[in-house]
Amino acid sequence: MRRLVKKWRALRRWQKIGIALSGVLLLISFGVYRWLFTDLPSLDRLQAGLALPSTRLYDRQGRLLYEIIDPKGGRNTAVTLEHIPPALIQATIATEDRNFYTNPGVDIGGIIRALWINVQGGEIRSGGSTITQQVARNLLLDPQQRVERTLTRKLRESVLALRLAQSYRRDDILMLYLNQTYYGNLAYGVQSAAQVYFGKNADALDLAECALLAGLPQTPAQYDPLTNPTAAKNRQAVVLRLMVEAGYITQTQAHDATKETLQYGSGRFPMQAPHFVIAVWEQLARDYPEQLYAGGLEVTTTLNLDWQHAAEEIARRRIDALNNPPPGEPPHNATDAALVALDPHTGQVLTMLGSVDYHDERIGGALNMAIAPRQPGSALKPFTYSLAFDPTRADPWSPSTMLLDISTPFVTRKLQSYTPANYGLVEHGPVSIREALASSYNIPAVVALDHVGVPALIDLLHKLGITTLNDPKRLDLALTLGGGEVRLVDLVGAYGAFPNGGVPVHPTYVLQIKDKTGKILYDWQPPKAAAPVIDPRVAYLITNVLSDNEARLPSFGNHSALQIGRSVAAKTGTTTDFRDNWTIGYTPSLVVGVWVGNADNTPMIKVSGVSGAGPIWNDFMRVALGDTPEESFTRPDGLVQVEVCALSGLLPTPLCPRRRLGWFIAGHVPTTPDTIYQKFTLDRATGLLATPQTPASQRIEQVFAVLPQEAHDWAVRHGIPQPPGSTARTTTTQTGNLSSAELRILSPDPYTIYQLTPVTPFETQAIRFTAAVPAGTQRVTYQLDDKDIGSADAAPWSVWWSLLPGQHQLTAVATFADGTTQSSAPLPFSVTSYAESP
Description:
The chain is an alpha+beta fold. Helix content is 32%, strand content 18%.
């Protein structure tokens, strides 16, 4: 009996537990139901979700630049699937949702991942959503919910997607997706995207164009072909690969589509300053997505619309003049230009011209060349010299420092010989940095970069806002001559540091943002005080050089486009193949940069920075500055002016024939007297140096400009006499890049590859070994592969050597009067026979 009672009590206890558990499960189910299903939007809201907000963009004076209005105005024209190419449908499915026609409307794996991340306390990120889920999210959820990264949003989106998949045909869902998805550049839906990017209707798109558009929705700004065509083409290749994997196209079709050159166009939309407007819109879409899509914004930008119109008119007129020159002069094949103007103290972009005609498909007008990476030519030279002037260096240079503008070989990090050349292949011999920078000589700039180092220049440019030099391994000494790509807007911002006391300035486009209720979401504030990345004294020295019209006379003459009738600093840039040319210049309150070239990167015909970009820059500066009072650049404390010998940059002696005042950073004023100009006693009869046996009546004194041995051949070619006899007594190497105490091999160039030829006698195929020697040298012996092959007892310290095939290493050994020796650094080179390839 007791056992029965115990069993009955146990049974009752389990019944109570079961009832309690059932109640708990019921409560949980009810909670989950309310969590997921309460207030879920009706599917009837699908069409309402297609409406676009009204966002207005204004210039700084409140003049309307662009307004996004009713989608029936042409920005969001819906088309049926019959008017959408099958390739675009296939590309979209392959990229976004390969199982679109077979899945239940949701990504089960994505939901499981979201649950797992939520259990771990992590953030739910978008991605992996089906096409149906994306339609549900974008057309049914509120704008605030769309941007949430929560488990609730993910599950509610999935529930809506399941309902959508049960209530609508898949083709209808796909048509909704293709007509409401944002493709960038203000284009919603494939019809608008086809017009914006290719200037045609969607049904006229080919496979290559379809693949490019299908790759945009995930990150339109990143893959925008109008501002980053390389990224867009890379993304297109990914889409084509996915289409091959899905079985839609063959590998051959994918390859052909990848190789196709795309012709970008632009839909004609009523907007002022279109490239600037699009740049602002992309920023708003990135920074204020929930407010942007919740009903529109009122945005006051930094743009000066009057200046913008002036830039447009000037660029069109000057480009037309380049292509319609006076009789007898050929057209220059320059079709496009870009211009950026900003305030160097605030970074506010006052003008942004991306092309001469946004709507001209023939020139790729929709491409924004103000933010497209292009090679800057010599426009980076001021930053190279800024590093050389840095007073924290052990031995900083100054604008008066002498460099040799003479053909000079350098060794790249790839162990290749690199010999830069000047525009027109002219060498100017010993020059001051002032003249070298102002007249834009190439060889001294490479000397300077070799002195400060490529990594230091890249680091400085990064600090100044240049964002495109992100692959140091491919950048070398040619960087200072334009051997890397930069964006015009970034370069103009970097130049802003010079009138801003060396403090970086970052371009900004927006002054104020209000939501639809008038609430201020953003209000521009002056940038906080920041430490300069260029010493203010160095910044002033660069400005002083770039505004020195006398110093640029050798290259630009006295009436160049770099003169605007007031104090202004300016620098040009030209690529060696005339694909790009630039002019960047500034006053204390305005920086303006101009690029001229072709968007498709075809070369122009003999158009330099001063003849192409220069006139546009000149015209714009005159219009922008108008009748405003002329400003002077403020000189910071810590600079002193000292008279120096113009050629050497050292203290003048009575022998120095030409002097000038030079600016120096305090504490780094030269203390060494000039040693370039020296007096020698000659024998009147022989013309050689006098000896103790020369009678007094035959002795004459003559002053020579004694140049470093590297400049000896240049001096001879230019009729500059050097002292006769041995140069062992002339310790005159006082240039910024040389040291008189070093023994250096001048020829051959390092890592040169010579090739024997069968068309000339073998004994005539020889090269000359030459060295620059330190003072007191009596003999130079050349050792090839550790074997003596010849010696020289006097200048020019040369021997000839007949070519022999092989890898060789040359060393020069100088012997002094006391018997001591000094060896040069080994120099590698090679010789191949005519049957070999280098």
